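Quick one:
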Amino acid sequence: METTLSERSYLTTRAGICWGAVLAGAAVSLAITIVLLWFGTALGLTVASPWSDSGVSASTFKIGTGLYLVVVAMISSALGGHIAGRLRGGWEPVVHPNEVYFRDTAHGFVTWATATVIGALLLASAAVGIAGATSGGLAAGAANAGISRASSSPVDVYVDQLLRPSVDGSSTSSPSTNAGDSRQEVSRLLTAAFRSGKDMSGDDKTYLAQTVARNTGLSQEDAQKRVDQTIVTAKSNIDAARKAAMQLAYWIVASLLIGAFSASLAASEAGAFRDRNWSAT
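Output:
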């Protein structure tokens, strides 16, 4: 089958992507994202409150945060895609309309991908810089104060709960004075149990209760109850944090996919609008 003149022109046309338009759209998308995220932070601080009888609930706050991420992705990606579609160069000789539609859509998608990659790199660089500055500050503070560099562990709060002296008069003996070694040992036992994701063995629980009894003055029975309750509380908190992270990840994925669709659609519409106006003149 012989090709038409339009098809031969399509086959010999120049490269179909305009990187200048793509980079311009990605820059606009990133800038709008930053503005909207800071605005969202201000809104979040406005509706959140440490008082129990004011502010929105935790569930409402999480859902609102997820929806706001989707809105941010839609607005910033659509604007970036529109800029890319309007600024891309014309294709001469004439390209088949189906190819024009594909190229405009691809411009929007590539703009979204470029903005996403640059944004991820910027966030990673910022995280590394913050972590480095924080560790440096902690090291300097430890050196000035003459204390060790050991950083706080997530299980420290549970160690505190276990080794807290009894205040209800149920102590049967005086607490041990060798609390430093006991804290490290309790912390290691809890960390190993939480990392494995399995229940602590009976021997470890018994030994942990003995350590608690020795350092708090509680009876063995009361110490065992405290150990069981602390483990249940810790696992509940870990599971709640896992679910919150999972929900946030789903919202981020949804916002990214919607952003890709918005950028592609906006670029195709902007390119068609551009061609209609220019062809009319």
